[in-house]
Amino acid sequence: MPELPEVEVVKRSLAKKIQNLIIKKVKINDDKLRFRVNKKKILKLEGLRLKGIERRSKFLIFFFDESYLMLVHLGMTGKFFFVNKSKKIHKTSFYYNIDKKKDRKHDHIIFFLEKKQKLIYNDVRKFGFIKIIKLDDFKSNIHLKYLGPEPLKKNYNFKYFKKYIKGKKRPVKNLLMDQKFVSGLGNIYVNEVLYLSGVKPMRKVKNLKNTEIKKIILFTKKILRDAIKFGGSSIKDFSTIYGKKGTFQQHFRVYGKKGEKCSNTDCNKSIIKINISNRGTFYCSRCQK
DNA sequence: AGGCATGTTACAGG
DNA sequence: ACCTGTAACATGCC
Are residues A128 and A99 part of one domain? Predict the structure, then answer.
């Protein structure tokens, strides 16, 4: 499910639950994730204590003793589940029922922790990945070094935006999705940001007015903060009682709302869906200029 | 049956 | 060399 808010929510719950625990054993059920899991490296985590977890963009970074880091990207469907001795799933992530074979089929990596507790990495589509790196290689890591600023930080601002778009002519939606420009936004939140900013997704960045740029920046920060507050967005309606659902999907104004009435009370248009770069793009033709 | 899906990236083409 | 868009990855759901 993961764009920045979802990854942040996962990070917080993970940190609360498994901080300072020792990894007793690592089991690999399937190493064919987005990149093959390096068995030799991941086994080095056995016996190490988890010192902390951080988020950068949509990445989770687990810090261990001995200067080892575990870099995790959840892709489209990657999830962590925490399981304790009585098999109760702690509310670490979203939908999953450990008693359902269908769900367990996608448990690819299992970390056995102290006190018979487990952390499971489950990923239906296997677009996520797990890499073990040394602290020294952290800054130069290929996945991290080209990332743009965190959208919630101060360096994502008007000045940066203006400078970056100089000479560029791509659609504003593609720009916002580009992790090199700003890191952490995905398709859902970009659709929402552009609706609130009153800007059509296909507008070329060179034609954006300064007032529009300012709105885009402000609403980006607002939406992400709100989404985190609501526990992220959970799109699909699974039936398990385990796992915590975010509720920010209830606040979507355009994403997935094709044909529905624009939420602006003085507008009688319906939300349109088009494709931009193979991604579902939702907008209101009246409220977005 | 076919289209669609919250992400990234290798590659092709301008 | 740079910029941009597309296809591919794996699986399940509607």
Answer: yes
